[in-house]
Every structure is written in C-alpha cells, then in structure tokens.
Amino acid sequence: MDSIMHSMFHLPLPVMEKILRPIIVYLCLIVFLRLFGKRELAQLNPFDLVVLLSLSNTVQNAIIGDDNSVSGGIIGAFSLLAINWLLTWFLYRSPRLNQTLEGSQTMLIENGVVSEEALKKETLTYEELVSVLNKNGFNDPADVDQCVLEPNGTFFVKGKTPTTETVHSRELMRAIEQLTAQVTAMRAELGTRR
C-alpha cells in the first residue's frame, strides 16, 4: 500500500517546475493561437479540429514533464486554471491590452457583398463561408447584411431587414395567391354543379 501511495503522490519534479511548466505552455499557446488567426478557434473543418486535438496531446508532456503522479496532475491543473483566471482578471481590468491581445473582428460580408480580401486574410474559402451562412439560416450572401468573424472564432451573422417596399410586395403576392386559390376553388365548384 505504501508503494502505491508513493507512486501516486510522489513528485519526481520540483513543485516550482510543476507550476511553471503549465504557465509557460499556456502563455505560448495564447501567443501561437493569436499569431495563426481566428480560424483555428472557429474549427471550420475537420483539419482545424485535428490540429486542436493534436495540439493538446503535443503539449501534454511539456506541461507535466516526466511525471504521472496524481499530485503532479493536480498541481498542473491548478496552475493552468490559476494562470487563466489571473490573465482573464488582468485583461478585464485593462481593456486596451485585451483588445491588443484578442485582435479585432473581421467583416466578411457587408450589405450582401463578400469581401474577398477578408476571406484571404482569414484563409477562408467561399464554400466555408457559405457553410457558416447555412448554419445560421441563410442560403445566399446577398441575404446577409453583416457576417463578422469575431476575435474568439465565432461568427456573427445578421440578415438584411426587408424594406417596406419588399414587405408590401410580399403581402400583395400572398393576397394574389390566396385570391387565385379562391377563384380556382370557385371555378371547380361551378364546374361540378353543371
């Protein structure tokens, strides 16, 4: 029993190293994700998902070192959560620094017009953009007032608000369709009476 407890809780690495490893990896990942863009966070295709999953596996040993103990895992997890909380708290207190670290949003569609330059900047294909629109209930970029890729990798999609002329036209078409249906029904009824 003593050997089990020893192997589970004995730290082969110094505690300070167990604290510093996750912090260094965390900060490097933040910088790398910022450098490589919002696309990785958006997970637009299976390749992006594979990169994120592989990334977690790749940095695992850098975070825990040559240590499989429960104590080491707990210290590493605590360090990750603590640095995340501290950084979030600090960025909350410093909006300018937060804006600098997070980056800015990218306007992909404005007033129904797709920005090819923005797509190139974010390395998005037209098909991926249409897929995002489809997930948000739109089939055509012309129906979209704005599509924005936010710094956190989410998409904001806002449809065009129809003009009063368009709404009036749609109402007229509906009324004509109803009248047509009623006239057709009346003709059919008159035809069966004869």
Work out the strand percent: 5-15%
DSSP helical segment count: 9
**Helical residues, percent:** 55-70%
Structural class: alpha+beta
Gyration radius from CA atoms, angstroms: 28 Å
Average pLDDT reading: 85
Please state the overall shape, judged from the principal axes of the Cα atoms.
elongated
Structurally, how many domains make up the residues?
2
H and E string = HHHHHHEEHHEEH
Main sheet strand line-up: 2-1-3-4
The beta-strand count equals: 4
First and last CA, distance: 100 Å
| Major sheet characteristics | 4 strands, antiparallel
Descriptive report:
This protein has 194 residues and is an alpha+beta fold. The chain folds into two domains: 101 residues, no CATH class; 54 residues, CRO Repressor (2-Layer Sandwich), CATH 3.30.240. The protein contains nine helices and four strands, in the order ααααααββααββα. The chain has a four-stranded antiparallel β-sheet with strand order 2-1-3-4. The radius of gyration is 28 Å and the shape is elongated.
